[in-house]
Amino acid sequence: MKQFSWRRLNIVLHRDIGYLTVAMLIIYGVSGLAVNHIEDWNPNFIREKRFEQIEPITATERDTVKAEAMRQLGLTEEPRNFFRPDPETAQLFYENLTYSVDLPTGNVMIETTQRRMVLFEMNQLHLNAPKGVWTFIADLFAVSLIFMGISGMFILKGKTGLAGRGKWFVLIGTVIPVGYWIWYQYLQ
Amino acid sequence: MKRSLFVLLIALLVTVAAQAGGKKNYGKELTVKETSKISDIIAAPEKFNGKRVKVKGPIVDVCKERGCWIKLGSDKEFESIRFKVDDGVIVFPLDLKGSNAVAEGVVSVRTVSVEDQIKSGKKMAAEEGTTFDEKSVTGPKTILQIKGEGAQVETK
Fold first, then answer.
1. Which of A55, A162, B127, B148 could anchor a disulfide with B85, C-beta 3.0 to 4.6 Å?
2. Which ranges of chain B does DSSP label H, i.e. alpha helix?
C-alpha cells in the first residue's frame, strides 16, 4: 500500500486545478492586457466614422425632417429610433449604425460600431458584467489562483525548490508589487 | 462524461437562444411601478431631486470608454437625461445606442464648477476625437442626472 504524501496530493491538486482554470487564466490574462490600455483604444468595440454631404434640410417639423433625411441618404428601412438633440441636429439610429445630420449644412456623420469578436466576451466576463452566478464562478477562480500560487511553491524539493533558489524568486516577485506601491504612494 | 458535456452545451445554447431578442436586464431589478416622464423631470428637477424614478426613452448615447452612462432621449424634442452608474457596477455596451430602454435610479441635481466642466469637456472631446473650447464654459452649471441602479433594454 502506497504511503500518503502531502507533496503528492499537492502536485495532483495543482495539476488538475491548473487544467480546470487554464481557459479562465487565458480569458482574464488577455482581457487584462486589453483593458489595461483602455486610455489608448476601445477594447470592446471597433468604431468607425465617415462623412457624407447632403443638401441642407430647412424643414423644422419632426416627421418631415426624418423623411427628408432618409430620402437624401437613400434609406428605405425605418430606423430603430429618431432623435433630435437640438434644433440643428437629427440622429437616425440603426443596428450598430448612427447617422448624425447637421441640418443647416447637410454634413452627415455616419458612425459604425462593431463588437471585437471574442475580446468583447472576454472583457465582459473579466469585468463581471453578467453579475449573478458569474460572481460566484469568478470568486472560485480567484480562490483557485491563490491555491495555485501557494501550491506551486511546494511542488519541487531541493536546489530548485522553495528552500533553494525558489525563495529568491518568491522574494523578487513580492518586492516588485510592494516596492512599486511604496514608490508610487510615498516617494514619487 | 462526454454525454454530460453535450447536455451542458445544449443547455447553454438554449439559454443563449432564449436571450437573443427581447429584453436584457442590467444591474438591479426594476421596482418602481409608475413611469415618470423625462420631460417632467427636466422641467422641475428640484421637485424630483433625491427621488427614485423609473423613466423610459431611446438610448441616444453611451459612454465610449467604460460603459458607465447612457443618455436617454426625452418624450419631448431637444431634451435628454444622463443615466449614470458607478464604474463597473453596470457596463453598458456601446452597441445599445438606438435601443429603447426603461431605467430606474435616483434623480440628482448638482452644481458643477467651471474647472470641473472644463476637465470633463476635455475628456469627452478626447473620447470623441474632437476639440473642446474652454470659452464655452461661462460659469458654474447645474447638472441633472439619474444615478442609475438598473435598466431593461430592448435588444431587437
1. B148
2. 2-19, 38-43, 45-48, 114-128
